[in-house]
Amino acid sequence: MIKNVLLVFCLLFSTTLSADLIEDRKAAKQKAKDTGGDYFTFIKVCNDGFMGACNKLALLYKNGTSVKQSYTKANQFFSKACEGNYADGCFNLAESFNNGLGVEQDVNRANSLYAKACDGGNAAGCLSLGISSNGEAEPDQDAAPSPTSDFFAFTKICDDGFVGACNSLALLYKNGTTVKQNFSKANQLFAKACKGGYAEGCFNLAESYRNSIGEERDYSRANELYAKACNGENAGGCLNLGIAYDSGQGVDQDYLKANELYTRACDGGETGGCLNLGISYDKGKGVEQDYSQANELYTNACDWGNTDGCLNLGISHNRGKGVVQDFEKANELYAKACDGRNGKACFNLGLAYTNGTGVDKDLATANRFFSDACDSGNTTGCFNLGNSYKTGTGTERDPGMAIELYTKACDGGNAGGCFNLALAYADGTLIKRSYPKASALYAKACDGGVTGGCFNLALNYAIGSGVRQSYTKANELYRRACDGGNAKACFNLGISYTKNTGVKLDYVKANQFFSKACDGGVASGCFSFAVMHQKGRGVEQDYNKAKELFEKACDGGHQGGCSNFTKLDESDIEDSSNDQNKSN
Predict the structure, then answer these.
(1) pLDDT of amino acid 446
(2) Residue 30 clears pLDDT 70, i.e. is over it
(3) I need a labelling partner for 158 at 20 to 30 A (CA). Which of 220, 367, 410, 484 fits?
(4) Are 352 and 359 in contact (CB under 8 A)?
(5) What kind and span of H or E run contains 394?
(6) Mean pLDDT within 154-164
(7) Which residues, 6+ apart, have CB-to-CB distance to 142 below 8 Å?
(8) Contact, 234 vs 240, CB < 8 A?
(9) Which DSSP category does 11 fall into?
């Protein structure tokens, strides 16, 4: 009676578990392949108690997809889903009664089911109930829906006491659909739905408090509402309250409580609950570490369309955590997650093709997956693809595309992208040289943890390239880079202490940094440390130690170290420890 006009309104609902995600992913993956896998997957998951899978199984029978069409069997599974409080199942069963599909037409029975669907959060059920009660004729299947029909239907049914319709009306206001966007009005209606015992209304109001949508951010209030939603069997409420306890957001951190809530969410069909509980077992948070249990939960999440579940299960197979190491299986799971636009999974698959791990090495295919990762928001994918275009690896060399990808990576918070972009501006090979831009990007890279960014920015401050010269600032950045493990920065800082450059002359401190530089593989650090021992500067004079360090410097390629090592007369030993490293 109201079929196509109504279905669009289902998109207004943020249900705790959208089975359509699975359908969309599987449809894309199975496009030219046998779709029988859907049937067996839904049978298994339906029998495990996931009512959304029962509804999907019913749709296979209704549409004759991979099984022989049977409205009777479809209605049996719609009924099972509905009895399990899956609102879409109630709506679909109502459609069968409304249109006489596999059952005798019964408008009253249909309306009863539309009402149950509406109370369960199915917007089309609310709208169907509104149209049916108004006695309106079935709309033209090809006609565009009235821009205000849903608003008036939801308003009427909300006023009649169907709190699910109040939630639907609130979503119209929240999203600005057919009415002017009004967060305050939306929250009033969410509150009305919540007060009337509609758990999803509590959940949506909690989201408003957590994300400061029409309300001042209040994590404590949000958690109260998540708890109310969870107690009303809203699995999303259990999940988000679990996340709050896991992170200590608005409550005292409590991993045990978080895991209890993740369990409730998972049992209620929220795949994020299964995933997060799996992570707890994986890391031993609030439970004894158990990779096998973690993988079982990742499997549940993955089977039900959660791409992070597939990703984490793939990582387990890649590393042999709780399973026999199997690179091919890992790649299969990465591919499944990547099909669902999981950027990290696409990136991992790109690495597999780059290194030939579980697949034949194929740099062109690797780039395709790096591109998929980048398009899905994974900035490391953008960075790696940028490197490929810079060097012509697996693709034609394209400096312009490399710059574009480094920029995208940097803008997305990838410090390596900022660093490579800075290098491009500094040397002018890929883009017009600009030292000020290079310095600004080195700063972003440094702040993002790339010690080379700190080191190169220090060099710029030391010589005044793109920034105002400041030895003090240079030394601050050398220290920051040195603390992060950049041995060249340690050496340069040591030189600053020997030359009174921006810091007070201090041979003892200089030796500390020369020692770190030497240990980090900088031959000049070993050489300078040797000279300090030979001269007795900041350390007790020790020719044997000096000779040992000259030898180490020589082994590292320092010619002065080789020369001094061969000189037996310490008076002939040359001191050439006055050159700082010039670049990273």
Answers:
(1) 98
(2) no
(3) 220
(4) yes
(5) none
(6) 87
(7) none
(8) no
(9) G
Identify whether the C-beta of residue 374 lies closer than 8 Å to the C-beta of residue 344.
Answer: no
Residue among 286, 303, 293, 375 at smallest CA distance from 338? 375
* pLDDT given for residue 178 in this prediction: 86
In the numeric block, which tokens belong to residue 347? 């990136």
Residue with tokens 């019913």: 58
Name the residue type at position 541.
Q
Report pLDDT for 362.
98
| 525: CB partners within 8 A, 6+ apart | 487, 490, 491, 494, 513, 514, 515, 516, 517, 518, 519
Q: Which residue has the tokens 């972003």?
A: 444
DSSP 292-351: HHHHHHHHHHHHTT-HHHHHHHHHHHHHTSSS---HHHHHHHHHHHHHTT-HHHHHHHHH
How many whole angstroms from its chain centre is CA 517? 37
Over residues 104-121, the pLDDT tens digits come to 999 889 889 988 888 877
* DSSP string across 96-157: HHHHTSSS---HHHHHHHHHHHHHTT-HHHHHHHHHHHTTPPPPPTTSPPPTTHHHHHHHHH
Q: Which of 377, 390, 310, 297 is nearest to 343 (CA)?
A: 377
| Total number of residues shown for the chain | 584
pLDDT digits (tens, 9 = 90+) for 208-245: 999 999 999 999 999 999 999 999 999 999 999 999 99
Q: Which superfamily does 455-572 belong to?
A: Tetratricopeptide repeat domain (1.25.40.10)
Q: Do domains 1-145 and 455-572 have the same CATH topology?
A: yes
For residue 336, what are the CA distances in angstroms to 299, 305, 329, 485? Answer: 12, 9, 11, 38
CATH for 1-145 is: 1.25.40.10
In the chain, where are the structural domains located?
1-145, 455-572
Q: Name the token pair of 225.
A: 């509402």
